[in-house]
Design brief:
The chain is α/β, with parallel strands linked by helices and 276 residues long. The chain has two domains: 4-35 and 133-274, 3-Layer(aba) Sandwich (Rossmann fold); 41-126, no CATH class. It is built from ten helices and eight strands. The protein has helices at residues 41-55, 62-76, 81-94, 102-126, 139-148, 161-170, 193-204, 218-226, 248-255, 267-274, and strands at 4-5, 12-13, 24-27, 152-160, 180-184, 211-215, 230-234, 259-261. Strands 1-2-8-7-6-3-4-5 form an eight-stranded mixed beta sheet, sandwiched between helices. α9 (248-255) links the parallel β7 (230-234) and β8. The structure holds magnesium ion (MG). Residues 28, 30-32, 78, 215-217 line the site of magnesium ion.
Length: 276
């Protein structure tokens, strides 16, 4: 169907849904609530290009390697970070190199990203930075409203769970996530967003329209549609120099998002719609 805007808002309705039954909400973290890791691509891409140059005898140019990396990093965003590192290892192997374990690349990436994230976290902890500009606009207020309505909220992120827990608490959102905070584990096969979603459905014997998934990645939107849940895509703006995710909105629509929002500034109207 041709999409409609909810009256006088920028909330796009792409599919008619059964409203009024939602009891549980699963939210993605980075790009959906948090901007603490915004710009992470500026760290991951150069690191991978460097690995391909140093660990293989490739004759590809810097620009060619960068295009290759940008494509798969972008495509795998939303899954756990390890999957991007697994792809890097495969690309190194394809070019005759002997890759390290994917986890070693992930540790190196986290080590390089740390100063960027740490500066923001230290600023938050010391009170020199306020949390508000590091949250997707009005995401905290949206969560508060959900909890006031008695809706159970969960976080499911592809970032390592210990980072997510710390950052959620610094951003002031942790206390509203009564259902739990879930994230990537070193034993990566023991976590996926799909697994968390399935567990909630099973534990509470939910039908699809009782569960809402909100995220800025196509992964969680696809996960939502696979179980018949309602999916809200957040087409938030990201700062990276590779123009990655420029077609985020279109991608979320392709993945099956029922509703698209730019952020939570019109959260009250979205809630009115979702809960009738
Ligand atoms: Mg995200």
């Amino acid at each position: 169907m041709e999409h409609l805007f909810l009256d006088n808002t920028s909330i796009e309705i792409h599919r008619e849904i059964q409203t009024g039954n939602i009891r549980h909400v699963v939210l993605d973290f980075d790009g959906t609530i948090s901007l603490i890791r915004d710009g992470w691509q500026n760290v991951m891409v150069p690191m991978m290009v460097e690995c391909l140059q140093q660990e293989t005898d490739t004759t590809e140019t810097q620009a060619q390697l960068e295009a290759l990396v940008v494509e798969f990093v972008d495509r795998l965003t939303g899954k756990q970070t390890i999957y991007q590192m697994i792809q890097l290892s495969e690309e190194i192997e394809k070019r005759g190199g002997t890759p390290k374990a994917p986890l070693a690349y992930k540790d190196e990436y986290n080590r390089r990203l740390l100063p960027v994230v740490e500066a923001r976290i230290a600023g938050l902890a010391a009170g020199t930075l306020t949390a508000e500009p590091l949250r997707v606009p009005m995401s905290l207020e949206f969560l508060k409203s959900l909890r006031e309505m008695g809706i159970h909220c969960y976080l499911a992120s592809g970032t390592d769970v210990e980072f997510v827990k710390n950052e959620a608490s610094l951003l002031g959102v942790a206390e509203y996530l009564d259902g739990g905070i879930f994230g990537a584990l070193r034993e990566y096969k023991k976590f996926s967003k799909a697994m968390i979603i399935q567990k909630i459905i099973t534990d509470f014997e939910l039908s699809g329209d009782e569960l809402l998934i909100i995220g800025d990645g196509y992964v969680e939107i696809e996960n939502a549609k696979a179980v018949g849940a309602i999916a809200v895509g957040v087409a938030s703006v990201e700062a990276n120099r590779y123009n990655m995710n420029a077609d985020k909105r279109e991608r979320l629509i392709r993945a099956g998002a029922d509703i698209i929002i730019p952020d939570f500034r019109e959260g009250a109207k979205l809630l009115d719609y979702l809960f009738d």
